[in-house]
Amino acid sequence: MRSSNPVFSRRGFSRDNGYAGFNAAPQAGAPAAGANPYAQGTAPNPYATNPYAPTGAPAPARTGAMTIDDVVTRTAMTLGTVVLGAALAWALLPVDEANLNKSYGIAVGAALIAFVLSMVQSFKRKPVPALIIAYAAFEGVFLGVISSAVSTYIGPGVVMQAVMGTMCVFAGVLLAYKMRWIRVTRRFYGFVMAAAMGFVLLMAVNLLFAVFGGGDGLGFRSGGLGILFGVIGIILGACFLALDFKQVEDGIAYGAPREESWLAAFGLTMTLVWIYLEMLRLLSILSGDD
User: Fold this and answer.
1) CA 17 to CA 37: how far, in whole Å?
2) 3-state DSSP call for residue 90?
């Protein structure tokens, strides 16, 4: 899905200036004439040629530039919408025998709408808050029904374990990123993108075999293989978080417009949804094996 996560075609905050590269540190002004922008494994400065790029000596913070508070606030709003949608779906769309098919049908429809909205936003040149909030609401409905089903048919503790696991992954990656134990470079980006595309393709093939061949497809979502791919999915989600943190850091350093904090919130929300779903699936398999 550009996935449920936009990282497969992420173009960074400055859509008018192409892909937002991963730089070791902000540069003062544009690169010198004839300089190799890929030297030492770094990518081009996404803000070096836009009107927000610093020139000469460091200048005071520009009014209207994105800050970490903006990113935190927008992310809280987006995630809050996901949680609210999930809570309402859990309460209003029961997954008992009488309502199971209806609730599943609504959940699938909500997931498809969320996917379409995410694709629309992903190809927009500017973030559209209404699209992002709508995506979060429909994604929340899908997560609420799925989580309720897992709680009902597998174990009531699995959902809370998945939530706590997602929070731990987020905190762990944030700490590792701030301590520079994870260094996001162009090579890191390329490796993660290749691994993620391979992962999604394998899951798509598995789904096709499951739909047309019945059973569990190729077995990538159950048993030992299911556990392995669940762990891989969570690791990929952690890598996505590192990419998100780097984008936020670069956007703030190079003076991205404040409105683009919505883009950061969009990416972080998609990544956390990815991690939660992979965590929920992994824990469901482990609980089913007990």
Assistant:
1) 14
2) helix
